Amino acid sequence: MRVVLSILTSLIIFIPIIEYMSYVYLKDRTKMEPYSLFYDSDMASKNTYTRNLYAGLDPLLGYSHHKRIRYNLKKHGMYRSSQQTVWHINKAKNCIGKDLDCEFSHGEPIVAVVGGSTTDAYAAIVKKRRPWSTFFADSCQEKFDSCQVANMGVGGFGSAQEVIKLIRDVAPLNFTHVIALHGPNELNRFRHRHLTAPMINQYKKEKKFLIKVPVLPNLQVAFRRFTTGADVVPSVYFGNSSNLGDFEHWKINVQISKGAMNQLGVQYFTVLQPIIGYGRYQSPGLVMEKKKSKQYFERLNDFYEKAVKFCESVDYCIDLTDLYDGSAEEVFNDPRHPNDLGNKLLGRAIFDKIDFEDRF
């Protein structure tokens, strides 16, 4: 019995030491950042309720919805045409998409909406709410019988990922309008934007070794290097380092997106989403302790104050940060995501702010 206990004790001590040595080795000898030795609750929560939803690999954007995820979209008035694209069924035409045999009138809106988890249709369904694009699509189809709306939102994505997404996924499909909902995903505090490589989603960096079960990941990679002479993933280049702030990086991204879409004859709009912590809305049920989240609130307000001023200077930015001001009802599911009522108000407000007749 003593021998067994001695062996177990030795393993308990020896394994962490080996993992640490592997960490140091990878840090010193490779150009790849090794796995952190510390438990990352933010990353863990990302993988808890959504670990199957975001299990797909996107070589350019880091990750994607898994191709097998369905969540009975038809029940929610939607259907899936690709891993990152969900179309709202056109109720007036009883038709399920522009790329099928549907008789849509020429010249009416074909709208792509992009954004993070606030836009993501699957994330909304998981949380038992409807995405704001549902209410936007309803308003659009009431006015235009042939209006078509595609939801391309993916949880965790921000304006950096959307620059690539617009060029790769939106440009080939002849959309007339693109609406991008932006907010907290622009803050590198949330690690959606890497500190020194802002075009890289931090979760993308976390998946760099492509090891699905992170059990002693540094040891696994170090062992592979010793036995095969190669990393699981070769040396990775994440782009030139940048010290741009949250607002400056977002501004560049939306300007690039606006310019690219304009060249294709597509109207582009960025929308500043309302959020708890900025503005006058007081949630009756949700409380965020500002003492514990001081840095978050400072970054949030700094970004929003600058972004709101920018919105006033351009015609393609829609400021909805005050949308819920004065509301006595709860409009949030949590401090960053609207509930069903909040999404209803958001989707309708976005539609009302866009002059579709200006293009048609």
Notes on the protein architecture:
It is a single chain. Mean pLDDT is 78; it is low at 37-50 and 205-213. This protein has 360 residues and is α/β, with parallel strands linked by helices. The strands form two sheets. The protein has a seven-stranded mixed sheet, with helices on both faces. The protein starts with a helix and ends in a 7-residue tail after the last helix. The relative contact order is 0.13. Helix content is 38%, strand content 11%. The chain has helices at residues 2-29, 41-48, 121-126, 132-143, 159-170, 202-206, 217-228, 246-263, 294-313, 340-353; strands at 78-82, 85-88, 110-114, 148-151, 177-182, 267-272, 317-319, 332-334, 337-338. Helix 1 packs across helix 7, helix 4 crosses helix 10 (340-353) and helix 5 (159-170) runs parallel beside helix 8. It is globular and about 80 Å long. It is built from ten helices and nine strands. A hairpin with a 2-residue loop joins strand 1 and strand 2 (85-88). The longest helix has 28 residues, at 2-29.
